[in-house]
Amino acid sequence: MFDIKEKFPDGFLWGGATAANQLEGAWDKDGKGPSIADALPGGKERFAIAGSQEFDWQLEDEKYTYPNHKGIDHYYRFKEDIKLFGEMGFKCYRFSIAWSRIFPQGDEETPNEAGLKFYDHLIDECLKYGIEPVITISHYELPLNLAQTYGGWKNRELIKFYERFARVVLERYHSKVTYWMIFNEINSAFHFPVMSQGLVPSNGANDFTNVVQAWHNQFVASALAVKIGHELDEQLQIGCMILYATSYAYDANPVNQYANLKQMQDFNFFCADVQVRGKYSQSTARMLKEHNVDPANLKITAEDLELLAQNTVDYIGFSYYMSMVTDVTREGSDEGVSGNLIGGVANPFLKSSDWGWQIDPKGLQIALNELYDRYQKPLFIVENGLGAKDVVAEDGAIHDDYRIDYLKQHIEAMQGAIRDGVEIMGYTPWGCIDLVSASTGEMSKRYGFIYVDLDDEGNGTLDRSRKDSFYWYKKVIESNGKSL
C-alpha cells in the first residue's frame, strides 16, 4: 500500500508538443481564415505592439513581418515531420487544431471540409507510426473575426461558436483520438490576455472585469466541450491546460509569504479550480475586489454554475518552463527577470536561459507535488523545454548539450515526483521541432530536437536535420526514462 514507485509507469506518454499557428504556415490556403496569431507581428516587440492602444487586430501592417504566416511549412511537410517523430519513438504528439482552418470566420454554421481533411491526414499519419494524438482544441488561435467583430472572449456569443467548433472536431475524431485539451494556458490572461482571450487595450484588455468575464465564458465553453466528449465516449480523456510557475516568497517576511500565497491562488490555481473542482474557489471574491471588479457586472447564470459543476476535466495538462519569486517589500533593489508571459524578481540560486528565463528543475518537482496534493488528478506535462540559439557546425551537426542537460534535469525531477507518489501521465517537451516562438515571433529561439533551416527574416531551405538531442531523446523513450 505504501510502496515507493521508482520508475515511469508502463504506457507513459513520451512525445513532443507544437501549436498549429507556430508551425503549419499556409495561413490563407484551402479556405483557412486569419487568426489572431496571424495578426501578431514578429520580433521581440510583438507583445509591446499588441499591448499598445493603437493596436486593433489590424492584419498585414507594412511596418511588420508575420512569421506565423509561413511557420515551418508543416502544412505541406507534415508527413516528413511525423516520420521523424516516429523515428524518435514518440508515444504521443500534442498538436492543436487551427480553429480558423475549420471555421474561417469563427461564426459560420458549416465547417470548412478542406480543413477537416488536413487533420484527417495528420491524425492518420500519427497513428501510422503508433503515435497517440493529443489534441489541443484551441491554442492561441482565435479566428480574427471573433476578436474584431465580437470583441474576443468577453462576449458570451463566443460560447456557442466554440461549442460548435468543439462538437465538429470531437465528433469527427473521437474514434481515433483519446486525449484532448480544451484551452491552452487559459490562466495566462491574468498577465496578458491577448493570445488566450483575444483582448488588447483597444477592445477592453485593461479592464479586469472583461478578463474575468472572458474566463467565465471560457469555463462554460470548456464544460460544454467536456460534456460533448463524454457523451460521445465516456473513455475520452479531456483535460484543462494551465501555465504553471512555481512561486517562492523572496524571504521569510510574512508580508512576502502572504503575497506569494495570493500569487499562487490567483495565477496558478484560479482557472484550474473551476475546471477541475467545478466551482469558483474561496479566494475569488478577494481577487475580484483587489482588481476592482464588481461581481454585479459579471454575467454568470445559475445554469452556468450547474454546467461547471457537472462537467469537470479528467486530468490537468500544464506547461512548466521556470519558477518565479514574489517580493512586495522592496522597491528597485533587485534585477527583474523575464519568463513565459510572466516575470518576477531574480532568484540568485538559479541560472537563466539565453532569453532570461530562470532554469529550475527542482521547481518542476515542487509544481507536480503542489498540483497533485491540491487536485488528486493525473498530471500531464505538455510543455517544457529550453529556448536557445543553436549553431550548425561545418559538418551539419548541431551539438545541443545544453538542451540535453536541461531536459535531463527536468526528467529527473519528474522521477522524484513519482517517488513522492504523484501520478504523471506523460511528457511532451515544447517545440519538438523548431518553430516560430509565441513570445517573440523568432525562429532563432529554438526548442526542437529537429533543426529547421529558417532564420528570423524568413530565409532558409526549410530542410530538417537531427540535433544531438534527437538521438538522446530517442534513447530516453526506448528505455522509458531509465537512460538519461
UniProtKB/TrEMBL annotation:
Positions annotated as active site in the UniProt record: E383
Hydrolase as UniProt keyword: yes
Domain of life according to the entry: Bacteria
GO cellular component terms attached to this protein's record: cytosol
Keywords annotated in UniProt: Glycosidase, Hydrolase
InterPro entries tied to this protein: GH, GH_1_N_CS, Glyco_hydro_1, Glyco_hydro_1_AS
GO biological process: carbohydrate catabolic process
GO molecular function: beta-glucosidase activity
SUPFAM superfamilies, A to Z: (Trans)glycosidases (SSF51445)
NCBIfam families: PRK09593.1 (NF007158)
Family, as annotated: Belongs to the glycosyl hydrolase 1 family.
Protein name according to UniProt: 6-phospho-beta-glucosidase
Organism: Liquorilactobacillus hordei DSM 19519
